[in-house]
Amino acid sequence: MTSAPASARRRRRGMPRWLLLTLIATALVLVLVIIGAIGWLVTTGIQALGAQAPAVGTRIVTPEESKAAKAATSGELAGEQQAAAEYLAAQPTAYWLTPEIDPVGEVGARVLNLAVEARAQDASLAVVVYGLPERDCGSESAGGLDDAAYATWTTEIGEALSSIKDVQKIVILEPDSLAQAPDCDANIDARMTALHDATLRLTGTDTWVYLDGGHSNWRPATEMAQLIERVGVTDRIRGFATNVSNYNPTASEFTYAHELSQQLGGAHALIDTSRNGAGVSTSEWCNSPGARVGDAGGMYGDDVVDTNLWIKPPGESDGACNGGPRAGQWWPEGSVELTRDAR
Questions:
Q1: Is residue 105 located within the same domain as residue 252?
Q2: Each residue's pLDDT tens digit, 101-129
Q3: Residue 11: which domain range?
Q4: Sheet of strand 169-173, all strands in order from the earlier edge strand to the far edge
Q5: Catalytic residue status for 136
Q6: Angle 336-337-341 (CA atoms, 0-180°, nearest 5)?
Q7: One of 102, 122, 136, 147 is an active-site residue; which one?
Q8: Taking the CB of the first residue and of the last residue of the chain, which one, N or C, has fewer CB atoms within 10 A?
């Protein structure tokens, strides 16, 4: 048999140029797809495959450390006051991390303990971080940490959250901090910087962070969106929380959340329904008379609103107003009124 010429044999060994170029182009496309996927995961707050955002059906932990639980086991209450405390102690409610109760050096342990409780209850961990410098702009909940201590405190919280691998973590960062900012004497830029840096410390695997979104009876959505955007972390957070510690009807908050989400390019929302059971908006934010507990968390949601939760613990006073004690203190009489239609 006659052998093929050497030149023909060489041509058969080489890869056709068009095939080589096709393979290179395909490889480049795959690299770009992978890079895009990684960017999408980071910008939506999902840093581990399989992480799920809060949604309808989400049940958050019922904290054993809540003030309702402490009141119910104090032995100091009786009758309706005892019944109200027991009822509220049994409701899944976000736990508020404050430097007054959980200071630097102790707050991380508190977060880890809440995670233990969440595992035992097969629930999600939900915390409110509330220690910003110039907190509440000197109003009823005045206080907070200085800049250096706040950095240390939020770092401890973030490190504790990052060490928790098997619990969904929900963080509501500094309620009222943005909606209230234009009315504060404090430097707005310093506040935005503090919130920006705290967000970076708190974000992590399966941790869903929500900034302050005000509520439907406060700032217009366009103004609220500008305040949120000034923090500079819209690519790191899940979205915003509305109606925290307020009383507006759930339907009004859904409408407002959609308006605000549209301004923010599709950000998601949580709605606080802990004290809006009376179903009316009110200009009275401090221990509003006639308020009632609202629908339980995890009942509602759509493509914008992840779900509703009890974020403000009912029974804790907003401040020394309308008969209440100082802010954050357990108020037996108020707890009775809030639960009158629920027990």
A1: yes
A2: 999 999 999 999 999 999 999 999 999 99
A3: 6-42
A4: 95-97, 125-129, 169-173, 207-212, 239-242, 268-272, 305-309
A5: yes
A6: 95
A7: 136
A8: N
